[in-house]
């Protein structure tokens, strides 16, 4: 083999090695992206479950809040009725004293 042929063979071998390293790098990048995609899918699933749980809890809290508002309103109405009753009682007693 002459020098040019030897040089050409070395260049071909160098190119093959470079191509092999490039393929290995790309494969490693692809594997890393696949792992990242799997981790993101898991995270997405976890977050969806958490959103569902929070929505359910929110609905329960809305219902409880509505019930408490009704109870508060009824309590206020009962208080007003008691005040009215007490005032009526005293007015009747006062009226009876003057009769």
From TrEMBL:
Gene3D superfamilies: 1.20.5.170. One of its GO terms (cellular component) is nucleus. Residues 1-28 are annotated as: Disordered. The chain crosses the membrane at residues 70-92. Residues 1-13 have a biased composition (Basic residues). Residues 5-68 form the BZIP domain. Residues 14-28 have a biased composition (Basic and acidic residues). SUPFAM superfamilies: Leucine zipper domain (SSF57959). This is BZIP domain-containing protein.
